[in-house]
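Data card: per-record layout.
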Amino acid sequence: MSESLRYQTLIESAQKIAPPCCAVAHPCDAGSLSAALEAARLGLFRPVLVGPQARIERVAREQGLDISGIERVDTPHSHASADLAVEYVQSAEASLLMKGSLHTDELMHSVIKHKGGLRTERRISHVFIMDVPNYDELLFITDAAVNIFPDLETKADIVQNAIDLHLGLGLGTPRVAILSAVEQVSGKIPSTIEAAALCKMAQRGQITGGELDGPLALDNAISLEAARIKGIDSPVAGRAQILVVPDLEAGNMLAKNLTFLGGAAAAGVVLGARVPIVLTSRADSGSTKLASCAVASLYADYLVKRQAAAIAGAADE
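The structure for this 317-residue chain is written out next.
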């Protein structure tokens, strides 16, 4: 399936649900404003444009974008935009958050700290949903954007967040590869020990919903032939759908390698907060930005339904 068709499938799925409200923080450049408006036009979400209105209106005029009929909230600067966008989620007026033209660190500071923030019992993490040429299905890579050197407990949340996303998108039980440089457990390489521990945690029910294997080197995680040569026999080896990297540096290099040398597209979403957060880059294509919006909308809908089911189940007890 081509890049456009894979992402188009996500977009079409998101169009079948009621569009959630999305607080768009500081959409003061052409890329972020046009992405939010196009997502609205396609019915992926209902945006609230939170930012300096004079700047937003100027960008709209210069780019020929129609913002009439779109809810807008005026703020003096980017920091206030981030804070107020978070408040929209805190008050349940919005069930999505989207980064505009402010810096990621500025938005995430408000997500973590503004009036209690949007944190949950999970650690916040990022997932790239990558469409890689010559790979049979979408490939998730985590965490390549938020947690720099995660410890074991943080990695468990990173894995669980990614599994939940895979399930929430209707992609089925994921095959999760915990990556390291080698496939053998070695005291000299701490990531191999953590990989083995994560697999044991899954066996004991501390991580649920996916099939885990690790440590696996990248080649035997995604290549059946490489796994066969190494004598690795598991449901995950050679067929991974989620790649869990040892740290942010490894993940960032892997994702950018696939993007800029391998021709992959990289949609992305932040998980573990009270709502999904869309983080787009100026380098993203239009289809990639829309795929990120679709992923976040679908997952927000999944979270609402899961919470409703949990409440109903508790009431029946």
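Known properties of this structure: DSSP finds eleven helices and eleven strands in the chain. The two ends are 45 Å apart (CA to CA).

See the next section for split statistics.
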